[in-house]
């Protein structure tokens, strides 16, 4: 019988009608309504119920009254259309209330009889599903007022909130960190070749892999292969499994209101996100995956597969037909081996295979024009199957990937696109890895042009094929994007060029490699805080990260993270149903935000939690930190509070004085007030200078500008034209007194004149301290700076161990004259740099109310940038070995103090630990790096500066040198360059010169040294100057929520920090301002000899001891480096092959001559052109 089986309806829940007094109920009919009576279907459903003999129906009159009641009127059309069935009952005990049972017809039943496209009915059903009371007691007929109702008294379905074990709502970060650890299963992989490759990964027995994988690395790499090799089907994540009133299961879509008896299934994407913890070896996992599968070619997509045989121009040989069958079915032929004992020679077979590559045709995205000017249908493009993996990395990681490939693997054929030479697609058929930067990939993808000439003449098909980008002709086995979390910023209508380029490729599997899939998902940190002391009166506090620390995330930050994860899943990984389109027949689009992101001011429902959890477990591969924390080095984090010396406090007060001058005289309202909305740029510059001044600020504010501001303020008070408060009067007088003191301070003046940190040197040779000083004073100790000391070392170098010659030189006037000349040169250098601003005139300094300035440095910036670019490339000018003989006048010359508490502390720490540990120092301002590098240069501490102004090749060379050449003990790194997977595992001590407000930036920086291969514990110290803005920043860092940190793009965006700057105060000066020059400085804990540090007389090349990028060989001299550079310029494309041996082979060795041949395991180059 053709009809609807009533047993197919799902008993979902109930509606309670209260009261029922308006219904036409007679006393005689009440006993009849004490049992369930069904509603009649309307005329729109023409088919009768099957199996309805036992049903008892309501009278038509009562049904009409019920359907016209406010509670059921909006659902009457659902009943008449057959979408639902209802039954009604009242209770003799509570005659004022009635219960309506609602049965819903599943969407996967009777679609031929009951149309499901009416939007009004879909909307009404969704509203009904939200109002139903699903409790068992109500279903049994109890009519008590339900506990979960809306404000209208309507029963609503209740889903448990997403809660953790402690009863609190589980955050997104907690959910991310509780993802099940990888558990690859060999039995789930059907393909025997892939199963063998998985086994080799799990056993870490991979041909060509020189490094043994940790167990967790094996599991992650094996699971990556499993997800590539085996198509997996999962239940539609939009569906929640629910039990109906009979205990049977059905599947419910809480957003669309859809009910299904049987769930929908989707194929999971081939690929995902490798989101292992920072420093856990994600690069090595990817290389292991490539090595284990390099013999497995890509496969023809199911949508392009055809069983039709290839039509040849002429009858092919049996060998050609067999070879075509091998390649078309992706049989792994590369693993064929030839041994001396073998009687077979596979050369002819291999040639036949290369003559018959597997291809399939796709429609090109580029459409040539016809002669008439209209567009013709796009021609078909042949896409070739390959073994190659496409790896796209940030520009600063290209060379690191090359080094990792050389370090961990052998036998891989790698193509690096290092130049603009046109690439022929067949080159990619012969390699295992195509490695290039994201910017290079975008540039190459932009080469695809519309192939028609200016006259509109159509090209031949062959010419058209040649014009296509070579990447579009290859079916890559996988695409790996390192640090690909940037894809989370994309939308359907706003994709990056990188993502648009990848969308044009034929790729079998897509992977993103990142430890932080989104800004708020940077995992759990484990460290042990400790306390130590530094300078007298200074203290050290733990960073507040002791034990296991989970960074809490706010609602808005979570929503932003969820949107990013959704963009990656939908637009890059093409994960269904999120990638569904309206144009697709038989499926429905899925709105990620509606199913996953909680509404404003609401908690995540159980349905959203299950949906999100299903997505996470489907695409993310990540071990829980508890499983790998024992393998990562321990991190001991400290916050070191330093008491500023007189010069530190003087400069901080000088900034406060300028703010006070400006605030009082502008009455805090004029447009030339620092904090006026129109002065935002000036205020930002002022704050930047103020932060730099916590390290050294003596170069700010020339004495003339200080006197001018002081005179203006004094005149303002004297005239009294503007009434000010008593508090402002006190502040202004304190600022005037401070300005007068600063303008007369000779050390402060020296810092401004020479734009370098003044230092004191005792036992200066030759009693010529005046000539070599920067404060123009005689006596001992001598106030000088690092540039003068460097010149002194260079000048005395020839006579270090020649007492007679040294004494003759010191007694003559030439030694003093040299000092005077160097001092004049320093003044002339600063002056010329200031004047050469492009216009030939000295740049003007912005002056606001009260003749106050921002403190901007107007000279030597160009010189500092030059020094940063030439870091660690200066000639060797130090003295003889510590074990050698030094002339007596130089033996006791020592650096005893500096004008910066932070600089003195860092010098003490570097000298103390450099022999046993390598050190990374993170800075925010190039001037700070310049000041520190100058002192390290004089103390012969070998160092490198990783500045953002350096070229990509230079930065990569510095990282390689720091890791491979133990001579270099210190790396100064710009904090903005400390992310994106840089590996500097050789370092075990980290110093932050300034506190970092963003905890994620700090975690990324620490992650450069906290690597899985790190053998030492990592010590991290953050330097904070007492009484400075840094104390407020550090306090706010601990108080701010993640949402506040996300919105705080500048420290001025944080109100407490802004108000601290706004209400600047004058700090008490040590000694009440009456200290001698040496007493104004920060003393070194251990004075350092100026002459007596290890060095030789030979003047080396600037790049001596830097590690070449093409291997581990160190360049001995400039000629060798020039030759190597010349060789690299000659090579337009690097195709290299590593060979087993004692060390890794260079990735940029000259390409093999027989480029057309394919390298087989155990073979030399054989074959002919493909």
Please provide a written account of the structure.
It contains 37 helices and 38 strands. α6 packs antiparallel against α7, α19 crosses α22 (726-744) and α28 crosses α31. The strands form 10 sheets. It has an 8-stranded mixed β-sheet. The protein has a 7-stranded mixed β-sheet with strand order 23-26-36-35-32-34-33, sandwiched between helices. The C terminus is likely disordered. The protein is flat. By secondary structure, the protein is an alpha/beta fold.
SSE layout and pairing:
Layout: E1 4-5, E2 10-17, E3 37-38, E4 49-50, H1 60-67, H2 76-80, E5 84-90, E6 98-104, H3 119-131, H4 136-139, H5 172-177, H6 192-203, H7 215-229, E7 233-235, E8 239-243, E9 249-253, E10 258-260, E11 265-267, E12 271-274, H8 282-292, H9 318-328, H10 347-355, E13 359-363, E14 380-385, E15 389-393, H11 398-408, E16 413-416, E17 433-437, H12 438-445, H13 461-467, E18 474-476, E19 478-482, H14 497-503, E20 506-507, E21 510-513, E22 525-527, E23 539-542, E24 547-549, H15 555-572, H16 592-596, H17 606-619, E25 620-621, H18 625-628, E26 635-642, H19 646-665, H20 680-693, H21 703-719, H22 726-744, H23 746-754, E27 759-762, H24 769-772, E28 782-784, H25 786-796, H26 803-811, H27 813-835, E29 847-848, E30 852-853, H28 861-869, H29 888-891, E31 894-898, H30 901-913, E32 918-923, H31 926-938, E33 943-946, H32 952-964, E34 970-974, E35 987-992, H33 999-1007, E36 1018-1025, H34 1029-1039, H35 1042-1047, H36 1055-1062, E37 1082-1089, H37 1118-1130, E38 1134-1137
Parallel strand pairs: 1-4, 12-21, 12-25, 14-18, 15-17, 15-19, 16-17, 18-20, 19-21, 26-36, 32-34, 32-35, 33-34, 35-36
Antiparallel strand pairs: 2-6, 3-5, 5-6, 7-11, 8-9, 9-10, 13-14, 16-38, 22-24, 23-26, 27-28, 27-31, 29-30, 31-37
Helix pairs in contact: 6-7, 7-8, 9-10, 11-32, 19-22, 21-22, 25-27, 25-31, 28-31, 34-36
Region (Disordered): 526-546, 1118-1148
Protein name: P-loop containing nucleoside triphosphate hydrolase protein
GO molecular function, one term: hydrolase activity
